[in-house]
Known about the structure:
By secondary structure, the protein is an alpha/beta fold.
Amino acid sequence: xxxxxxxxxxxxxxxxxxxxxxxxxxxxxxxxxxxxxxxxxxxxxxxxxxxxxxxxxxxxxxxxxxxxxxxxxxxxxxxxxxxxxxxxxxxxxxxxxxxxxxxxxxxxxxxxxxxxxxxxxxxxxxxxxxxxxxxxxxxxxxxxxxxxxxxxxxxxxxxxxxxxxxxxxxxxxxxxxxxxxxxxxxxxxxxxxxxxxxxxxxxxxxxxxxxxxxxxxxxxxxxxxxxxxxxxxxxxxxxxxxxxxxxxxxxxxxxxxxxxxxxxxxxxxxxxxxxxxxxxxxxxxxxxxxxxxxxxxxxxxxxxxxxxxxxxxxxxxxxxxxxxxxxxxxxxxxxxxxxxxxxxxxxxxxxxxxxxxx
Length: 358
């Protein structure tokens, strides 16, 4: 690991003080099932320096706002209103929230309503920031699920066949990275590059990391940093999440084609291939061409076989999945692939671009 201090655009950043003041930020909406546990994991940190939690609460259809208000009875918790519901805007509001004495903190640690931190997470992030000189550090998202769909979604999100081989999903060696999951950042670095892009409702974390790297900062991945994540509980919710992610990823690629890579292009390529196969089957059936129909059916057939085989291997990884989760895993994988790919092909609509629900 390097001992140099991080720099942005040629400017050296100040060394972190021995006792950093830390702001943990979260942007939440419709999180009544998870918010209290997520906040408790922050407030229970073994870090003995200054630490506070700032929660930006968006428009919700459940008791999220009430839970956040109860949490704010703890003097370490501040709640800010985020009427847009945008994660980028909410996170910027939280990061910009000064303390009562008007001061700001040295390090920003991001969490969300679906996460739970190990008790030593903040302390280890600070140690890693100092030792590497990085502007941001992060580790592995470790999904946990209860019930067939959530358990299967958790396995899919931690396996290369689910959402690709990114190190923060599947693990790997410690070292420089393109992006970090959630992330603990030097606040000065985040402010220097303009914070989260308020025009992005999704993919905002990846895009922030891109600007930090292009400004000359180093991001550092360490698999020893582990964050527990709770996936969506229903197939419909999984499909909606991945559809929206695909749309916004297309928007990032549209703005900067250099960000496209095989992992992002594989799902839309799959969707287009399957669509072409279906059209060919219809044409072949109308034309009475059995060979054409059979050849076209080979494409979805090969995909389905691949998904079933991959799911079988993924389900056998320890800890073994329950029988019900293993049975639904191929369906969850297909929903993730096709929803993400379809969202990417569809692209961002004018309405979605200004809709906080997109």
